[in-house]
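pasting for ref
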Amino acid sequence: MKNKIKLMVIGLASLCLHFNVNAQVQPGSFGYYQDALRFSQTNQVGTARLSGMAGAGSVLGGDLSAAFLNPAGLAFYNRSQFVFTPGLNFNQYNSSFLGQNSNNEKSKLELSNLGVVINFNKSDLIPGGWRGGSVAITFNRTNDFNQQLTYGANNDNESIIDAMLNRADGFFSNELVGIEQVGYDHYLINPLPNAPDFYVSPVEGFPFQQESITRTGHTDQINIAGGANYDDKIYLGAGIGIVSTNYTMNRVYTESFFGTALSSFSIDEQFDVSGTGFNANFGVIVRPTDFIRIGASVTTPTWFNFNEESDAIYNSEYNNFDVADFEDNGQRVILEDTVLNSLQTQTDIFISDYDLRTPAKFNLGAAFFIGKHGFITADVERVDYSNAHVSSRDFSADNDNRTIESIYQSTTNIRLGGEYRYKEFRFRGGFASIGDPTNELLDDIDRSRTVISAGVGINFGRYFVDFAYSQTKFNESFTSYTFSDGIGPTATIENKLNNARLSLGLNF
């Protein structure tokens, strides 16, 4: 006899993806602390010229990326300009899970940068300290979330059912929540008749555990900015940024058993979030001599409003299991008379709105010019990720905000770049070190990033073409499920984000 049961569970079973949940993650956190980091970070931004120098160049000026980095750089323009920059991402992911390594790749074309600068400089014959300036409207892809991961291994020590048992013990069946409730509804864990707050399982042995994670989405920013030039010595700028983002994650976790009552258990989770926001930036650049430029800029927090939807489906495939055969010390554990084959649990769709304030960014920069042969430049950026904040009318974000304050920290990001000029040719290189936004209270994963880059360009005066390649490396982790102490099987991922950009420019 084939018995099919569909059960509706209220609320998602939180499996704590992305970070290994420990004591520093406050109980009752919904996971919005992860969004706080995800939507606060940026990847390579701007033109191929800037990308070829690993993002360094906030005080160089004369580049479309100034509208995003330091709008004072727009004041260096002496003519108008249009730039179009398509890009290609080809990313590699090396996953390590229970001693097994897996490799995945994902490629995607994108529009990296687009914009126009309109120059309003005065003629050299017109007196006065203010020499004019420029305004710009630019588009930048500031983050790309696309990722495809698949990894798996035999777990000879535990199953997610062990975590269900561990989290359920001490609670009666009507008190269960999360994955332990799913386990109870699917007969994976069952209370003893004489001890209803102690649970046992009919499933024996250890499984093959496999996880597939697909993430898509991006963050885009439109900047409207202007810069003014005073006496070719002091350059001031300001602008606003309009930000839009979307992020989707589909995660399928499966355990496969052999020679026992259960054939497989799977979790299929879907999460979608989209939002809009705004920020502002201000900057100043000083040129004391023709060979030195120094400057500073600040980008305010981005104030986001998000809409999210999430749901999950849980599926158990039994091997025609007669529950009457499940006994403990000669007594039946399940007092029902049924034969199990397929059980499915589907959550309600969870919908909510929430606001996120990302941290502000402070930047200092300097550039040293070697005559007309080129330059070297450096930027130092400071970001305090613990200042992010979540709020909502639909839920209490207090525990997520406590988690943000506990596990995130300030980072110092250093970017170095240079350019060598030979006639109409340009040769560029760069390196960046982006600090770890998480502290040692979270786990032992180093999430700092390194960027190496190189680029070439040809400047024909009115037209120019630039090409750049950059590679960003960093580590992250995904935890499949957790026991009551916050520990569970964790995959570590080494990300290599390779990006190629081609900028086509027109001066007019």
